[in-house]
């Protein structure tokens, strides 16, 4: 009996992505695996059941009862784990931080769970790196949302009714999402600057044709990530940034420190110093926000400045986000299968570091 790789219809509010696309179903079949989907699993992403030539379909309970590997985009309700057979594998963004109940349920049902956000950011892991693929979608969408919500045009326009100056856009945090946001702002014709505390981002920002905003604070951490700023560094950053913010029409903030709440970079006083009509799109809203006025999922107006805290941006471009995500999942599942059987190699750091639970044991240190 071939290994059954399965996916359910995602149930998180507003979620439209799917973990297995028709293209990946075909590739899984090509590897000798069986693909089983809940009916309509891909519909919201733009993949009706008929587009999956290589998959079988069942209701949710039927899928769970037969799944050897359950692939998901976001963690399903804990009750779903009870429907899986002991020893089955769960692969996806399982969001284990602050989710002790979920990790306990996976352990109790003796499931082998892999949380793809925990993959090390190594060259070999790049093809499975869901943080990168989905952050790229988020950065792109954040800038489109900004362009749509801003009362100004992004590009310079020369018309019979006069010349419109281009918008000035600042992107705070030049990681994967920030760089994609910068690239998108440039394509829309805005005068774009990027800022980050990791010095190596200067070259990356400049290579996109944007200007690097140097505030004189450097905080490179380990593994290519930023570290948390000290109180003095934070004060210095805020002082320097406050002066610059006055000139920007749009700020898109994407700053994050892994495993920590988002750094608070934009204070209420700094927002009060911005131009009326200015706009902040806070992509870090999900982890608390980079602006202290951000309310996740809401629009806040403060002294004429609008602050948006959009959530789950990748779900808003579900077709391409799913295509990228499903490729990441396929590449990871491929790693778990040897000679047609599921044999995770726990000596492989990609397998070991992403493993949350295995054989009734919790491996996630938190
Ligand atoms: P992230 O989402 O953790 O953070 C976003 C950005 O915010 C980062 O660039 C970070 O430096 C910045 N930041 C944090 N605190 C800040 C502050 N106080 N002020 C301003 N900026 C702040 O980062 P990410 O996008 O996931 O990636 C970060 C790094 O990982 C990059 O170096 C990237 O190239 C690297 N990476 C490597 C791989 C790989 O090799 N497989 C894959 C993806 C990313």
From TrEMBL:
SMART domains: AlaDh_PNT_C (SM01002), AlaDh_PNT_N (SM01003). GO terms for cellular component: plasma membrane. Its EC number is 7.1.1.1. Residues 6-138 form the Alanine dehydrogenase/pyridine nucleotide transhydrogenase N-terminal domain. This is proton-translocating NAD(P)(+) transhydrogenase. The transhydrogenation between NADH and NADP is coupled to respiration and ATP hydrolysis and functions as a proton pump across the membrane. GO terms for molecular function: NADP binding; proton-translocating NAD(P)+ transhydrogenase activity. CDD domains: Rubrum_tdh. It is an enzyme of class 7 (translocase). Residues 147-309 form the Alanine dehydrogenase/pyridine nucleotide transhydrogenase NAD(H)-binding domain. It comes from Rhodanobacter denitrificans. Keywords: NAD, NADP, Nucleotide-binding, Translocase. The keyword NAD applies. It catalyses: NAD(+) + NADPH + H(+)(in) = NADH + NADP(+) + H(+)(out). Coiled coil: none annotated. GO terms for biological process: NADPH regeneration. It holds the Pfam family AlaDh_PNT_C.
